[in-house]
Amino acid sequence: MLDLATMTGLQTLRAMFALPDPPPNIGSFLGMRVERLEEGDVVFTLPTRPEYANPLGTLHGGICATLLDSVMACAVHSTLPAGASYGTLELKVNYIRAGRVDGGLLTAAGSTIHVGRSTATAEGRVTDADGKLVAHGTTTCMVYR
Question: Are the CB atoms for 118 and 142 separated by under 8 Å?
């Protein structure tokens, strides 16, 4: 059993992602994979699926929003000391181009901008398998100490 009260945010994330049978979470539900997990710097990938389509047959915006919320919030989480937690206060997403749902790999990168006593901000980018920008965003998180 993990003692989350004594672990830093980075230690907690690394331990949770290393579990052979992690608890249910949005990342495992969608098929996200952790590619990099450093302090203030997170990268996840997600293979697209036809089920991620909107009515027009392109990638639903909620998939990019979920990827961005995940990497930006985890970037913030990775900077927190033991005993601190956080919650997304605001999420802004800019969609640049339509994504495909043909199994191509999306890569989402998030990094912190500012981590203060009660709020933190981060930015993120989602690129497609060709390295083209699909969406980018920012977040503000409340920090609970």
Answer: yes
Residue 51 identity: E
Name the nearest CA neighbour of 102 among 142, 57, 50. 50
Find all residues with CB under 8 Å of 81, minimum gap 6, and list them: 8, 9, 145
φ, ψ (nearest 5 deg) of residue 55: -60, -20
Arch. (CATH architecture) of 4-144: Roll (3.10)
Residues 17/32, Cβ–Cβ less than 8 Å: no
103-129, pLDDT tens digit by residue?
999 999 999 999 999 999 999 999 999
Domain segments of the chain as ranges: 4-144
